[in-house]
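Protein modeling request. Please complete all fields; requests missing the sequence field cannot be processed.
Requester role: graduate student
Desired output: 3D structure, token encoding
Chains: 1
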Amino acid sequence: MKIVRFQNNNKKFYGKLVDDYVYKIEGNIFDDDYSINDKFSKEEVEFLAPINPPNIIGIGLNYKKHAKELNEKLPEKPLIFLKATTSIIGDGEKIVLPSIAPNKTDYEGELAVVIGKEAKDISVNEVNEYIFGYACANDITARDCQFEIDSQWARSKSFDTFGPLGPWIETELTDPNNCEIKTILNNQIVQDSNTSNMIFNIQELVSYCSKNFTLNPGTVILTGTPKGVGYNKKPPIFLKSGDKIEVEIENIGRITNIVK
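Delivered output (260 residues):
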């Protein structure tokens, strides 16, 4: 099932997307007792980011080849960072280069996990019961802030519009640990991998995070990016105004954003 968030007549709703129609959801999407009411065509609504998360938890260096390209040691445990929730934008919205750090903005295509019920100190075997669904994400990062100016990652990853997410939440992804993932810049593939190449799989990541924080419903976990980031290309490739950047994940969909 594809869960979307949309606006109609200046009001925001969750909905279920079926072919060319959106069915409005009444009630809490994380409960089983919600109802589905009004139907809209896609042309009647404005799609938004599919969730307004209470927290965004990022995982760094979770693909072996990505760690290698950055000359970093493989982590023994998941490397956690936090990303501001105000960075979230949806499919089709613009990524705005920050005026304070516009020159070294990079892409990071990632699989996002959306938590469905409160999780604290759960085991690997319990994780699937707590996952609501999955989405495409782009963990946009200002590399100068990340590596040259600051000594931590929060600012570099948290500028407004640096969190594209969508185009929906897929609740019926059969095997998130075996999905092709691609990032496409101006119609050229720049990242091409599979989630099977992650160092820590989905269940291990969610379990580990839950042992450090309470994961509230709607929490988004970004599971890491594969090899191919612009920072490490020769010469480096950074996002510039007018660029089209897309993240595509098998059995989920594709999110597209234009850089401003």
